[in-house]
């Protein structure tokens, strides 16, 4: 079975039909640039372009970088235009896609679901926390494989500031940190999350997962196992399609 997955990110809107049995893209993905400001109307146009590129006419799962309840309603917008808050994103995208059935889910939850089924968390029981380091820090918490949606652990307070402002991948660029300096911040953050949840496993996702060898060796003193995500760039697309299938 195939469902179309779209990952709405800060820099690009990427999508492809997803083969749900294999947990992989059924065709090469297509990407358009995310408009700035990333307003609901602008993003919906980008999503339409991506979906139309494939002439797709079935169900569509989309990620969103904020809290999304009921597969539809956006509740927060930390790193996108604030006009998203309160938007019925399902209705907006359904309308823009000419009536196709749409499900919208948090981006980290989508990536997490894909990692748990097809990647670094496959078959893992107990508490597993998938963290995505990008513009912000996204989180997906699983207990015996079941997702607790919209956990938003990137907004935990650490040293009097929001953790994602201090330890996201963007913070590494903005503050011109070496991998080792950044790893110390991530270590402190992981120690805090570990204190709260005592997970068995941390899966580190986002673009940095490809560079895991540069920073993971510098992270010390965490009891949980720490591994890089495996699906990397496609985790959001695959997970969005999987969530759309699950929630349908
Ligand atoms: C948002 C989360 C999102 C994360 C990664 C955070 O700022 O609040 O919902 O998952 O960024 O995009």
| Order of H and E elements | EEEEHEEEHEHEEEEEHHHEHEH
- Give me the count of strands: 15
Classified in CATH, the superfamily of the largest domain is ATPase, nucleotide binding domain
Main sheet, how many strands, which sense, barrel?
A: 6 strands, mixed
Mean pLDDT: 97
* Residue fraction in strands: 25-35%
At the first level of CATH, the class of the largest domain is Alpha Beta
Q: Which stretches are poorly predicted, pLDDT < 50 over at least 5 residues?
A: none
- Straight-line distance between termini: 13 Å
Level-2 CATH architecture of the largest domain: 2-Layer Sandwich
Describe this structure in words.
- By secondary structure, this protein is of the alpha/beta class.
- The protein has 2 domains: 2-109 and 235-247, Nucleotidyltransferase, domain 5; 123-229, ATPase, nucleotide binding domain (Nucleotidyltransferase, domain 5), CATH 3.30.420.
- 33% of the residues lie in helices and 26% in strands.
- It has 8 helices and 15 strands.
- The chain has helices at residues 40-53, 89-96, 107-118, 163-167, 169-174, 179-197, 212-215, 235-247; strands at 2-8, 12-19, 24-25, 30-33, 60-64, 68-69, 73-74, 102-106, 127-133, 137-143, 146-148, 157-158, 161-162, 201-205, 225-228.
- The strands form 4 sheets. Strands 1, 2, 3, 4, 5 and 8 form a 6-stranded mixed beta sheet that branches. It has a 5-stranded mixed beta sheet with strand order 11-10-9-14-15.
- α1 (40-53) crosses α2 and α3 packs across α8.
- The protein is globular.
- The mean pLDDT is 97.
- The structure holds beta-D-glucopyranose.
- Beta-D-glucopyranose is lined by residues 65-67, 76, 78-79, 106-108, 132, 134, 136, 138, 152, 154, 164.
